[in-house]
Amino acid sequence: MTETLIVERRDAVTLVTLNRPKALNALNSQVLAELLEVTRAYDADAGQGCMVITGSEKAFAAGADIKEMQAQGFADMYSHDFFAGWDAFTRTRKPIIAAVAGYALGGGCELAMMCDFILAADTAKFGQPEIKLAVTPGMGGSQRLAHAVGKAKAMEMCLTGRMMDAAEAERAGLVSRVVPAGELVEEAVKTAATVAAMAPLAVKANKEMVNAAFDMGLTQGVQFERRLFHALFGTEDQNEGMAAFVEKRAGKWTGR
Ligand code: CAA
Questions:
Q1: Within 6 Å (CB) of ligand 1, which residues are found?
Q2: pTM, two decimal places
């Protein structure tokens, strides 16, 4: 538990709930600092295999904190490289699932897209409304949204500030699945528990190689995949996983 986050351990799943209800979970510097601290601890904890980040029923997060940014000028933003801290969040090596209900706007949509995949409640609404404030996305939204849903929808959303509902977000490939709002957190924790039960090195390798698809060309990406695949044949868990299959039993992982 920190001032802006509720952190719970559900066996091998870390459940983080953004907790600034009066500001609809607007993401200020304190949220970022606390989230980085919690995420680093999660990444270093061998007992934790997957993380879920969620918000409230009304808002996953309604954006970066406009009140924090309002009085800043170019020199402040540029000299402090405002938002650069979020890059550290994206370097987390273990998986993070965003469980989104209600508004995921601006930085909220961007945080959800920084996670490895998004499970959405049927109440979820995604948008990049920064243009209405006479600015642009600043936490990677223009890039990640364009990768996720293609140029046409990304451009329309950034230029008009229009929100996408859960059904459209699923059709567009922004979210992996839509579930009833009342079941969102339990479904996300259940999904995270499935991931957490896998061999830890294989989890990291799968995350790393899917993410590589966004930075590499096809030939280079396929080569990268193959090398990581080969590397896993040097692990105890690969021996165990294949032996367990042949012997018709569940594998027991050592993480080595
Ligand atoms: N920053 C700071 N405070 C915010 C906020 C934000 N992004 N979003 C909401 N709040 C605050 C409101 O100011 C309000 O506070 P007060 O009670 O003190 O007035 C409180 O949360 C509740 O909000 P509303 O009264 O506006 O609630 P609503 O139900 O009428 O509307 C909403 C909900 C449509 C989400 C509306 O709050 C809204 O449009 N929020 C701003 C969305 C936005 O522009 N996000 C982008 C921010 S910029 C950004 O994120 C840059 C980037 O690229 C990272």
A1: 23-24, 26, 62-67, 103, 105-107, 110, 129-130, 133, 137-139, 141
A2: 0.98
